[in-house]
Amino acid sequence: xxxxxxxxxxYAAAVAAVAGALAVxxxxxxxxxxxxxxxxxxxxxxxxxxxxxxxxxxxxAAPTLGQLAAAKGRxxxxxxxxxxxxxxxxxxxLGSEFNQITVGNxxxxxxxxxxxxxxxxxxxxxxxxxxxxxxxxxxxxxxVWHNQLAGWVNDVPAGELLGVMRNHITNVAGxxxxxxVHWDVVNEAFEENGARRQSxxxxxxxxSYIAEAFKAARAADPNVKLYYxxxxxxxxxxxSDAVYDMVKSFKQQxxxxxxVGMQAHLILGQVPSTMRQNIQRFADxxxxxxxxxxxxxxxxxxxxxxxxxxxxxxxxxxxxxxAVSRCVGITVWDFSDGYSWIPSxxxxxxxxxxxxxxxxxxxxxxxVYEALGGxxxxxxxxxxxGGTTxxxxxxxxxxxxxxxxxxxxxxxxxxxxxxxxxTVKWTLVAxxxxxxxxxxVATTSGxxxxxxxxxxxGSLGGNGSTSFGFVGSWTGSNPVPANVTCTVG
Length: 489
Ligand code: XIL
Description:
Blueprint: H1 12-29, H2 65-71, E1 75-80, H3 88-97, E2 100-103, H4 109-112, H5 122-133, E3 137-144, H6 158-175, E4 182-187, H7 200-204, H8 209-220, E5 225-230, H9 238-253, E6 259-262, E7 265-267, H10 275-284, E8 288-299, H11 304-322, E9 327-332, H12 342-345, E10 349-350, H13 363-371, E11 379-383, E12 391-401, E13 404-413, E14 422-427, E15 433-438, E16 440-445, E17 448-453, E18 465-473, E19 485-488
Parallel strand pairs: 1-2, 1-9, 2-3, 3-4, 4-5, 5-6, 6-8, 7-8, 8-9
Antiparallel strand pairs: 8-10, 11-12, 12-13, 13-18, 14-17, 14-19, 15-18, 16-17
Helix pairs in contact: 6-8, 10-11, 11-13
The protein binds (3S,4R)-3-hydroxy-2-oxopiperidin-4-yl beta-D-xylopyranoside (XIL).
(3S,4R)-3-hydroxy-2-oxopiperidin-4-yl beta-D-xylopyranoside (XIL) is lined by residues 104-105, 187, 263, 293, 341.
């Protein structure tokens, strides 16, 4: 799709006014973030004025995760896959919120060299082009891996496999030379106990295959950062010890390695307590560290308690990275629960990411946002008396400056069946007044505010959510409302 294609701008006039008001807010609330990222959502996306429910128009007032990370000398990215590149609500978020992208599948061997000597870069090139159009850096993933390997590789005679592996790397890394910042050169080469995984490469080439892969990658693209990438190496243990020993010996021998990727496919409540310390010991070897595939899965369905734990866990991971200067960035393994690999691989688990299925920002998003230095936000949630047939409104202040503020209300359908309309109400406190509202239709009576769904976001599937945004002004203090109600219908 064209990266500039957007949904119709239903509220263009209101949005223009909002953008004006927000320029002030930006300057006061987040001066250091306004323009600090080379990969932010400025340029084509900076109006941000689309009316999608995902990252609503005025949301450009608040910095993105990419901008916040950039202000700390890091990136915050997402993996993506080709089927989602035509999904506009999805790409609206992907293209604006992140300053880094990892190619989620289509650089894997089975896609890129499906038969011996036949290379197909079509799909991966599309992802790289999307990233370039949105000023995002790209991590290549992955050159040598036992999974998603083309079947023919298993049949290559032992004496030929090193040549086949080198040829693959020379071609693929050569094709992307100068276009990527990081490459996962070898993926998942160790077992949990620290032994080498008995992949076809290990069996037919032997221990040296990893070093040979790194040497071939360096020759093909001298400037890209070369990473070893694995899971369950986030904390100190037998597996991370084995990777540590390998990196140490590579450094001693002059084998080119620049970084270690910790995938961080984590389980709710189980962020390893030694994560910061472990990142630090790798950094002390003279390599960078990246959190490359972060997701934190839970038993579904999610609920407020699990969401809060997950937010805590995300915060812990971000803080562990920020604590070590050589931890260069964090990538989530896709960003929306509707597009995560988890449910298909871990039955009964999911909800592992920072946006829900409808691109509503979850508590985990706000935890990352805050850990990256975003303006603290305040939340109040009120569930209507409708209980499981009702809806829940979550009110947040997403940015605040002298005299003004921006708010966002997420509306969640409590029931498992579709609802066709909703109304959210709250009461302003003395000194507050409501400005423009987007993705909802507001009426006010004195201090009472009532926001009804817009024509396009009233229908919410089972447990689905949407959000609307607004700007307001304030004097005195700017508390969140004591009571926010959500009514279906
Ligand atoms: C996953 C993809 O997300 C899925 O779409 C695919 O079916 C399987 O692979 N570790 C990795 C990633 O290094 O490449 C994996 O990605 C997830 C685990």
